[in-house]
Design goal:
Layout lengths: L1 E3 L1 H7 L3 H11 L10 H8 L6 E3 L2 H5 L6 H11 L4 H7 L4 E2 L7 H7 L4 E4 L2 E4 L5
Antiparallel strand pairs: 1-2, 3-5, 4-5
């Protein structure tokens, strides 16, 4: 499992490819001292890492999907409640959290996400 601040990521990292590179680095298991300098800077830019991923490695290494699909997954995953995961083992996101109905089409078209029972499910978080 990794923890991150999505606001810090999108503030400091400008391309989908770099965001995926960042997540590959922080899920690599290397000690912080061995991270690339720009990765350290992004992670150090905030003290509150309120977002989490249970299984980041299969996501960042997944084939047949675009970096945009992966970044969209990361952004939606950051909207989940860590407290609800700890208390109830909830790994999904309630669809009512999504305020923009236009995002529903993007969710439906993303092969890494599914909607079931008004919940958004994350392919690599459910297993």
């Amino acid at each position: 499992m990794i923890y991150y601040s999505w606001n810090s990521v999108i503030l400091h990292v400008k391309t989908d490819r770099k965001i995926i590179e960042l997540f590959k680095e922080i899920s690599s298991g290397k000690p912080f001292s061995l991270y690339k300098p720009w990765v350290k800077q992004v992670l150090a830019s905030t003290k509150r890492h309120t977002s989490y991923l249970i299984n980041p490695i299969p996501l960042v290494n997944s084939k047949g999907v675009t970096d945009r699909d992966k970044v969209f997954y990361l952004g939606l995953a950051s909207m989940r409640s860590y407290n609800r995961y700890v208390l109830y083992n909830e790994k999904h996101l309630d669809i009512r959290v999504i305020g923009n109905p236009d995002l529903l089409e993007a969710i439906k078209n993303n092969p890494l996400l599914t909607i079931n029972d008004n919940n958004i499910h994350f392919k690599y978080e459910e297993n």
